[in-house]
Amino acid sequence: MLAGKRILLIIGGGIAAYKCLELIRRYREAGAQVTPVLTKAAEQFVTPLSVAALAGRKLYRDLFDLTDEAEMGHIQLSRAADLVVVAPATADLMAKMAAGLAGDLASTLLMATDKRVLIAPAMNVRMWQHPATRRNRATLAGDGILSVGPNEGEMACGEYGPGRMAEPAEILAATAAALSAGALAGRRILVTSGPTHEPIDPVRYIANRSSGSQGTAIARALAGQGAEVTFVTGPATVPPPEGVHVVKVETAREMLAAVTAALPADVAVFAAAVADWRVATESGRKLKKDGSGRPPVLDFAENPDILATVSQMAQGRPRLVIGFAAETDDVVAHATAKRARKGCDWILANDVSPATGIMGGSHNTVTLISATGAESWPEMTKDQVANRLAQKIAEALA
Ligand code: C5P
């Protein structure tokens, strides 16, 4: 579980800091890589030398250490980890985190990180029970900060009660749990995928060449990050992913009904290639040649625009609505206009002119268009596009 994981360990200034030496040893035994950061106060309790020796790596201490900034800036340091662990999380560090202060290296890293944060609080029982700490605890929990402990027991200051830092074994278990829960755990996400089939008569229909592979990859990536995914799919050629709630539909109108039924959701991704038109006069019987030599005339009616409908919902609109734009020319300009017209937050635009082989192929070259502009991604597999999108979504919701 911990093997190969990178942990940024911020050691706060409390007597429990000595337990971090044991924690570092345990992390390393489990195969994790530990990058330690010491606050100034922590240096009063453990020596930088013993921490660095046990971690087997350089430790970081000062925000304004120019050598470190040249080697690895604090932003990069905060992101080059899979998880940030704060142990012991003192009352002071927790207050800084809750207030969003960034006056030293530890607090700056905590503000700059895009990773999950696990804290192991440790402090005197009165400080733990103080209304200010209670408020900060609630704020941090609301911000999605995970925590382990404190335990109740005899404290170094002679008092008894909650405030003892969790034992290294407990922090190890909480670390493993935090690393296994994906960045989208607890999020409800709706994904549409595949083509739609619009019937002409009981045996014929109008369709398009969408295989459903990009939508399927997106649903798989989101579920892999722990999201609860409802996957509304038209008749795709690729099978739906594991671990999602699959709703199979045929037509655009059925897709809209399934989408509406799946709301509310935190995010909606509309990857389906929905037919713009349906045959208005669908025949209940198979159309036959009547011997006159005249072809049948089909009347068309416009299908509901599912993406626009959800984007423009007055109530219950998902926080993030993402559409696709399959274009054959002037991709960014058309997709930017489409984003405004539909009212969605992001558009993933791609060039589907036949020469690109994107329709039904395994690769995709997309440009992400949002309110802040266009971001072009290099050519990658549809799975890679999906993983990158899942990561972007997690960042946007964080
Ligand atoms: O307008 P256009 O079909 O190019 O827009 C593409 C985007 O709109 C895709 O995200 C697609 O899933 C969505 N769409 C929809 N309902 C429609 C047509 C398109 O949700 N009827």
Descriptive overview:
- The protein is of the alpha/beta class.
- It folds into 2 domains: 6-179, Rossmann fold (3-Layer(aba) Sandwich); 188-279 and 293-397, Rossmann fold.
- It has helices at residues 19-29, 48-55, 66-71, 74-79, 91-99, 105-112, 125-129, 131-142, 168-180, 213-224, 252-262, 306-311, 331-342, 382-397, and strands spanning 6-11, 33-38, 83-89, 116-121, 146-147, 151-154, 160-164, 188-193, 198-199, 205-206, 228-233, 245-248, 267-270, 277-279, 300-302, 320-327, 346-351, 363-364, 366-370, 373-376, 380-381.
- It has an 8-stranded mixed beta sheet with strand order 12-11-8-13-16-17-19-20, with helices on both faces. The protein has a 5-stranded parallel beta sheet with strand order 2-1-3-4-5, with helices on both faces. Strands 6-7 form a two-stranded antiparallel ribbon.
- The protein starts with 5 loop residues before the first strand and ends with a helix.
- The model has no long low-confidence stretch (mean pLDDT 91).
- Bound molecules: cytidine-5'-monophosphate.
- Cytidine-5'-monophosphate (C5P) binds next to helix 12 and strand 16.
CATH structural class of the largest domain: Alpha Beta
Biggest β-sheet description? 8 strands, mixed
Q: How many domains, as an integer? A: 2
Mean model confidence by pLDDT? 91
Question: Helix/strand/pairing class, anyone?
Answer: alpha/beta
Number of helices: 14
CATH superfamily of the largest domain, by name, is: CoaB-like
